[in-house]
Structure formats: C-alpha cells, structure tokens
Amino acid sequence: MNLLSLIANHQDYLIAFGLTLFAGLSTGIGSAIAFFTRRTNPKFLSVALGFSAGVMIYISFVEIFIKARGILQGEMGPQMGYLVTILAFFTGMVLIAVIDKLVPAFENPHELKKVEDFELGDGPGHEEDGDASLTMRRALKERQARDLKRRIRLYRMGVLSAVAIAVHNFPEGLATFLTALQDIKLGLPIAIAIAIHNIPEGIAVSVPIYHATGSRRKAFKFSFLSGLAEPLGALVGFLLLLPFMNDLVFGFMFAAVAGIMVFISIDNLLPAAREYGEPHLSLYGLMAGMGLMAVSLVLLL
Known about the structure:
Layout: H1 3-8, H2 10-24, H3 27-36, H4 42-76, H5 78-102, H6 132-182, H7 184-213, H8 216-241, H9 247-276, H10 279-299
Helix pairs in contact: 2-6, 2-7, 2-8, 3-7, 3-8, 4-5, 4-7, 4-9, 4-10, 5-9, 6-7, 6-8, 6-9, 7-8, 9-10
C-alpha cells in the first residue's frame, strides 16, 4: 500500500467518510422504530445483531488483522511485524474496554433497550378514607408527581445516552473510516454492520427523550446528533493522527481496528442479540453474517 498516493486521492476520503456517516446516522432507524412501533421485534433484532457480529468478527480476523500484519511485516520484518500486530490488536481491545467501563451501565447505550421499556404508566392511585373528591385529587397529584419525576429521569437518561454514544462512537467511527480508506470492499460491510449495531442506540436516545418531552422532533434531534458524533469523531481522530501518519502508524491503527471490532462484537452485540430473542437466533445470525462475508469476499477477488 502506498499511503502517500492514498492520501492524494480525495475520492477515497469522501467514500470512507460517506460510509462512516451512513453508519452513524443509522441511529435514525432506531428513532423510526421507536416512533412507529409499539413494541420491539426481538427476533428480528436478535438475528440482525448476531449477523452484524458475524460480519465484524469474520472481517476482523480473516481480513483486517491479516492486512495489518502484512503492512507491519513489510515495515519491520516478519517476526517483529507480527509481534507489533498482536500488540496493536490488543491495544484496540483495551482502548474500547476502558471507554466502555467509564460509561455507567445505566446510561450505557450498549445495554439492552426496548421500546416498551420506556412507556409511562399511570400507576395505581393512593386510596384513603374520607371525601371521595379529595381522595381523587390527592391521587391525581401523587400520580402527576410520580410521572414528573419519571419524565425527568427519562430525559436525563436520554441525554446521557446521547453523550455516551458520542464517546463510544469515536473509536467505532475511526475504525469504520480507516477500514473503508484502506479497502472499500471491507469498509462497506463494516459500515453496514455498525449501522445495524447503532439501531438499538437510536432507541436508547430517542424513546426516553420522547416520553419525557412528548416531542418527536426533539427526540430525533438528540438521536441525530449522537449519530453524527461517529463521522465527526472519525474525522477529528484521523486529522489528529495525520501529522504522524505513515505506513507503520497506519498498520498499527489497522490492527487496533480489528481489536475494537472483536470487542464490540463479543461484549456488546452478541450478549444483546441473545437477550433480545432466542439464543439460537443470534447464533444463526452470526453464522449467516460470517457465511455471507466469506462468499462476498471470494466473489470480490
């Protein structure tokens, strides 16, 4: 790979950024699901998330890791290049693990979310002896107070989820961008996999905001901005690395991308896929994702 010629070709940048933008803004699909369906389709999401994990795991081990090793071995020699590739792979895993750990579980957008989890209920009124109208007024005030507290909690949850997604999307966006920049044949399926992965995140942001405010526009705005953090994070991250970029740094980053993808798949996608539906559905999705990628990569040779 000639990195200087790659940088000189602006079309590669535009395509890579476009794919990253598509992946990030797929949170809007989650918003649409939240607004137009009363309940989540767990079987569909289970298969879809398993499929996404299969695509990312297969590409990470079969393509990205191998390509990164080839770049680094070409720069450092067979043995040292292989060792640095392994180091970069686990560096990527540790990076995303630390980021994931820093986000509290309550606001973590990777935790399981369903549309129906956020529905506001009136709850039973508080019954007491005495005048019926007074009892009803007190019950109404108590119910309104409970709903107000829950709306405040939901609004806080939606906003913090949007912030958490922005934090998580920085390495995800950079990984998608670098993969697409290195090889569009790998970048396209990775972008689709990340897009599927972002659907529940859109639900995690838009649904609590909507139920807290009653505004679809505000809910979609927060979801849109949280998704926009992915391409912006990719662009900022790449620009920060650009002054230091050469084949050695690019190879290290590419191997780290593989680690990031594997961690996301194992820690986020597969557990969520198993919780959304029957365990075997996530496995079937995983196998389908791997199988489709294997066939498509052979056909694209």
